[in-house]
Amino acid sequence: MTTLPPRAVRRCHHPVNLLHSTVYFSPEFATELAGVGVADPHAAYFAGRAAAMGAVGPGVVTGTFYNFNHALVARYLPAVWDTASPADVLAARLRAADATVRRLLGDAAASDGMAEAARLALRATEACTRHGRPLYAAHADLPVPEAPHLAFWHAATLLREHRGDAHLAALLSADLDPLEAVVSHTATGTGISPRWVLATRGWEQADWDAAVERLRGRGLLDAAGGLTEAGAALREEVEAHTDRLDAAPYEHLGAEGVARLTELARGFLTAAAAAGAFPSRLTGQG
């Protein structure tokens, strides 16, 4: 088994995951989903990310996405499948990925570096496992696109969902419910902002405040809403637990391959962010 430097798994995953996520924030995604009849942003996201699992109902999406209010999910599922089939949605998502990556990265989308990143990321996915990972397992059944920038985006999707499924196991082990997980992550200073959560996840301010109080009651948040020493330790253990469950793809790739994929993905991410890939109020405490 390859021994990787400390935190190499999450350092590599971070830019790969963020590059994957650019599609869901893009105008191309909204346009392509609207083109198959799914114009509402919530419906588009739920359908776009869940379509690989088939025409699933709200319970499956709430369970696998974890931090959305079930009432919000049930507002759009399963009704969205009466408008567009999973196959239609997956095709629209891939068209959106093509247009988004080309727009954000320009010439780099067709570069030798992109082809190399695709090879490395796909090699890492060879060691991903399906058991206990429903979102990953569903996406693993999809064909790999031929174009290197789409092959890379596909591999990034697999790596993202593989780690994401593992992360849910870590959150459950830490006894963090959906909103407690978000609140405690935001308190680290690296999570999505409360404003963004309330606007997109179906929760109310009262729900957020109640989660804060529960975490304070466990000694994980201080009076100002920051992490206590115990809270910081718990969040680090969640990430370390996730790293352990997600180590196989990166160990399979090897230390040199992981370092190179991290380097390439960071370069692409820097370019994508400079091109306006992410909403300005996505992260932070506000």
UniProtKB/TrEMBL annotation:
Pfam families: HTH_67. It comes from the Bacteria. This is SalK. It comes from Streptomyces changanensis. The lineage of its organism: Bacteria, Bacillati, Actinomycetota, Actinomycetes, Kitasatosporales.
